[in-house]
Design goal:
single chain; 485 residues; Beta-lactamase; 3 domains
Length: 485
């Protein structure tokens, strides 16, 4: 009786918590810190998993269970489209839909194409991202990976390269499989990478697309985007939403990844496991409204603090002479809209300037740039200009500046011309000599080997060669007495 009670209690616990493994927390990415996660209680959301990210910097503005395992459904197709875009195939390249690609998808599971139908790479991208065509996703997997298993492996590897290390793909379409999982944080990373492709941005912002007729279907097929928030006639329309990708399976429930834009600001939102379809749109609107309100103008570069010079050089008959330097300036401060709490000290600055400028050079001449980066992403580039003109010196001025005939004025730049060429010549001679020695050594060894081979062949004329067991073999196994025939 006691055993029966224990079994019943365990059964009730399993029923009461059916998603315990599904929502299990996974290890966050290495760069993820608690300080980056906003207070989860500031918004009322229907989604069980969500995240809001600044698309420009990657800064996490808000997150709820964002590193917990969840099922992506058709958000999977963002990775499928990304790999197709990264493959480098021409947009007119045909992709055939095999019988296996079609038959593996039930008609009610977003089947679009016919057996042996060809869609171009461009048409396939629209079919995947707008109509969520699972059969076309299968065809893309065969086209790029040869098989679904191999393509799913490619997807997982690419996800891990992007830092989405808690993701594992087993198919290209997102239909539920237990080992096909991700996190809201990982989907945001994948979406952010896909947005680096301008065509991807154009596709997700497209409301409708027309597929051409095929041999099995004589009419044009009009497909529509499933993201309701980009349609002005929809009750969920939001002018700040550019586009995204919806998803649904019984196990994953409704999911949505979106790109929002307000002025120069761009945000990525991910909402997962929402019971009602409308909830993914209202949650997205709530996240975007909150996120855009968190930005404020921040000065990330002050032109007055930037002090640089570049050597001014002049060519003469004796080489390259350093005749002075030219100041460099940046044209104005740089102010960026950044999320509240963003540490501007995390922005790195890289100065791109030549080692020297050859006179003459005009004032306000563009000579380089300053690049501001955060987490490997370029936030802005600031052009640099010459602060004054740099003029050539006359022969008289050169003689006064370099009374020793100019040789002393070569500085380290004299080596850039004559000495470097001389050093390169010496290096080439050394390498050529080494090559000759190696070649000679190989030839000598080859001739020695050939001579020994001929000697062994000639010894075959004698008895006792190669294990002759006649009376002339000595007791020493390695010594033979030979008798000429």
């Amino acid at each position: 009786m006691l055993k029966l009670r224990i079994v019943l209690i365990l059964a009730l616990a399993a029923f009461a918590f059916p998603r315990a493994a599904y929502g299990a927390q996974t290890e966050p990415a290495a760069e993820q810190t608690n300080s980056e996660i906003a207070d989860e209680s500031i918004m009322e959301l229907e989604s069980e998993f969500s995240i809001l990210v600044d698309a420009n910097t990657g800064y996490i503005i808000h997150g709820v269970n964002m590193i917990n395992r969840a099922y992506p459904a058709s958000m999977t197709k963002v990775m499928t489209a990304l790999l197709l875009l990264e493959s480098g195939h021409d947009m007119s390249t045909p992709i055939v839909h095999s019988h296996e690609a079609i038959s593996n998808v039930m008609p009610w599971h977003s089947g679009l194409a016919y057996v042996d139908e060809h869609l171009t790479v461009e048409e396939a991208l629209y079919a995947i991202m707008l109509a969520s065509a699972n059969d076309t996703s299968n065809a893309v997997a065969e086209f790029l990976g040869g098989s679904m298993e191999n393509f799913a492996r490619m997807m997982t590897v690419r996800a891990h390269q992007l830092g989405a290390v808690n993701t594992n793909f087993t198919n290209s379409h997102g239909l539920w499989e237990e080992e096909h999982f991700t996190t809201a944080y990982d989907i945001a990373l994948i979406m952010r990478e896909a947005l680096t492709h301008e065509m991807f941005r154009d596709i997700i912002a497209t409301q409708r697309f027309t597929l051409p007729p095929c041999k099995n279907y004589e009419d044009y097929r009009l497909i529509y985007n499933t993201h309701n928030m980009i349609f002005p006639t929809s009750q969920f329309f939001n002018p700040n939403i550019v586009g995204g990708k919806t998803g649904f399976t019984n196990n994953s429930r409704h999911t949505l990844v979106s790109l929002g834009r307000h002025g120069d600001l761009e945000l990525i939102s991910v909402v997962m496991y929402v019971d009602q379809r409308g909830g993914i749109f209202t949650d997205t609107a709530t996240l975007m409204e909150y996120g855009f309100g968190q930005f404020a103008p921040r000065t990330v570069f002050t032109a007055g603090d930037f002090v640089h010079t570049v050597d001014l050089v002049q060519r003469s008959g004796e080489g390259v002479l350093v005749i002075g330097d030219v100041g460099v300036y940046a044209d104005g401060d740089l102010v960026l809209s950044l999320p509240a709490g963003f540490d501007t000290k995390s922005i790195t600055m890289e100065v791109h300037l030549p080692d020297r400028i050859v006179a003459p050079v005009a004032q306000d001449f563009a000579v380089g740039r300053v690049t501001l980066e955060h987490d490997g992403n370029v936030l802005a580039e600031i052009p640099l200009f010459t602060a004054a003109a740099g003029h050539q010196l006359s022969e008289h001025d050169l003689a006064e500046l370099f009374p020793g005939g100019g040789v002393a004025g070569y500085a380290h730049y004299a080596a850039d011309d004559d000495n470097v060429e001389r050093a390169n010549f010496v290096l080439n001679v050394i390498l050529a000599s080494a090559g000759v020695l190696v070649f000679g050594f190989v030839m000598v060894r080859f001739l020695q080997f050939s001579r020994k081979s001929r000697r062994r062949r000639s010894m075959g004329k004698y008895r006792g060669y190669r294990g002759y067991n006649g009376p002339y073999r000595s007791n020493n196994n390695y010594k033979f007495k030979f008798r000429y025939k």
